[in-house]
Amino acid sequence: MMTSNVLSIDEPGEVCLAEEKLPDVPEGGFLVETVYSGVSAGTELTFVKGTNPYLSATWDPALGLFMEGAPSVSYPVRGIGYMQVGRVVETRTRAVREGALVAMCYGHRTAYVADPMTDRFVELPPDLDPILGIYVAHMGPICANGLLHAAHDLHGPAARDLGDGVRGRRIVVVGAGVVGLLTALFAISGGAAEVVVVDETPARLEIAAALGANVLAADDDPAVTLKRRWRHGQNDRGADAVFQCRGRPRALALGLRLLRPQGTLVDLAFYTDGADEVRLGEEFHHNGLSLRCAQIGRVPRGLAHAWDRERLSAETIALLRQHGGALREHVITDVVGFSDAPRFLTGLATRRLQTVQGVLRDDVQDERR
Fold it and tell me: What would you report as the CA-atom Rg of the chain, rounded to the nearest whole angstrom?
């Protein structure tokens, strides 16, 4: 029986590789061996740090509430990770051919037996660098969905493409992590009049600039700078829309300050510690602002029939074809062997290591071959 190595978080701060047995490939299924597995330095590290809300409360999907009770997730936590690229090495279905490269979300593991009826996969085109496939199944659609929310905010169900919310408009992206950088690229590709990325880290601002965005340091009061520069009318200054992509309350507070009156902030961030620093009695109230959460679990109301996950992945592939070289050069900063994953994730969680986009390469399967 074939085995797979899977990343296991046994306790906060304790990460290892565990061996798991794989079932035989059933009729209608297929087997993939992992080629690349992208690391989310946000969501995944909340499990390593022990701060994810699923670890301390019960999530009731019917009510949409976190409730007191047994945690929905307990240690050991296995199968986290949503940026996998695998090669099909055995198939018993006509849905995918042997040898195909597919983007999937099956967690950090070296192999996986998939069922096309329950597991979503996207076959990668041959002209795409396989390492960029880590963005196709989930991360790219997260960012594309943010653009879609901005389009819906402006046009409602009449929104037709991702550029409808940014075309000809002045856009700010707060946060130059992977989500912010991809979102900025979507806005640039969508025809925004100007895209400014705001972040606290000079090295990340350099990456944003290399991708074609304008940049401002978060500690230089960019709200004053941009509102002096971006005038729409008397007492009407600031960004048309802000995409907030950093899970820090101060970043959300800054995003609200950057908006013009009655502007909209589309929030793609995950605030594991709440947002106590956000002051709703100031700019949010006095400028009549709107705050929209763009969470990948749903697209805007009235657009689900036209904008499923497959279309968001297709938009991601189009973006990668246009900007893949720059992403590969500037955004994917670390490629480490799968066997080094425990050290890599614990280093990121404790801030001993820094990365923009870390990727695990399957050296375990390489050794077996």
Answer: 21
30-39 and 101-104 strand pairing: unpaired
pLDDT digits (tens, 9 = 90+) for 116-175: 999 999 999 999 999 999 999 999 999 999 999 999 999 999 999 999 999 999 999 999
Tokens of 91: 């198939």
pLDDT value of position 368 = 45
Contact 176, 212 (CB under 8 A): no
Q: For 263-318, how does the pLDDT look when each residue is reduced to its tens digit (9 = 90+)? A: 999 999 988 877 888 888 889 989 999 999 998 889 999 999 999 999 999 999 99
Tokens for 86?
């695998």
- Are residues 176 and 204 in contact, defined by beta-carbon separation less than 8 angstroms? yes
CA–CA gap between residue 107 and residue 104 (Å, rounded):
9
Cβ-proximal residues to 87 (8 Å cutoff; 6+ apart), any chain: 32, 33, 35, 99, 100, 101, 102
Answer whether 243's CB lies under 8 Å from 171's CB: yes
Q: Mention every residue, 6+ apart, whose C-beta is less than 8 A from residue 343.
A: none
Q: Which residue has the tokens 């409730």?
A: 67
The single-letter DSSP state of residue 167 is B
